[in-house]
Write a structure and sequence with these properties.
By secondary structure, the chain is of the alpha+beta class. The protein is built from five helices and eight strands. The chain has helices at 6-35, 88-93, 101-104, 115-123, 185-198; strands at residues 42-45, 54-60, 63-69, 76-84, 128-135, 148-156, 162-167, 175-183. A hairpin with a 7-residue loop joins strand 7 and strand 8. Helix 1 runs parallel beside helix 5 (185-198). The chain is globular, with a radius of gyration of 20 Å.
Length: 202
Amino acid sequence: MAFSDPQHDARERIAHTARTIQQTRTAQMAIRLLLTQGIRPQVTRSRPTESPWVDVTFTHGATSVRWSNTYYRNGHSLRFKLLPLTLAPTVLAAVGSAPDSMLATFHDPTDFEGDAARWLDEQTAGLLGAVDSRPLPGYDEEASDTPIYTSELSGRWQVEGIALLELSGPDMTAVCNLEILRLSEAAAHAVITAYADRIPLR
């Protein structure tokens, strides 16, 4: 027969309470920020039997955003879908850290094809690298001389954070899907604040 350990049980209760407080704080921070912009986010939390997590999701125009917290170290992540291209540099800069120095040594502006990718490179100070490319719309994918544009980019910061970005097209009318992973709560808060400050009031 197994007996419970009162000290272990007490530590578990304390840890659960701390996670609940952090979970509530994350959601409240997001809600306060977004309500000032006329946005009502939805909050989804883990069940008591699950490892703790919370998702804050909202939409603004065609853009949808999800802020997730898994309560590990740098366990915050942000996912933007159909983010206007012109907002991407602001969102990325809000992380507030210099690009990873090792990756920066391999940065080459000539790797980027298409106006959108080249503009992003200019605006983000060497943070992003070209990862993948696609044929320009309307061209034969099988032809050897088909012109291409950079469709996927990624980057990493020195202190925290990884960025994964996908472009919908080659020119400045493109939108992007952007994921920023492995952030602290402070950095995630800064990114959401920067985004909320740039979008028009509803």
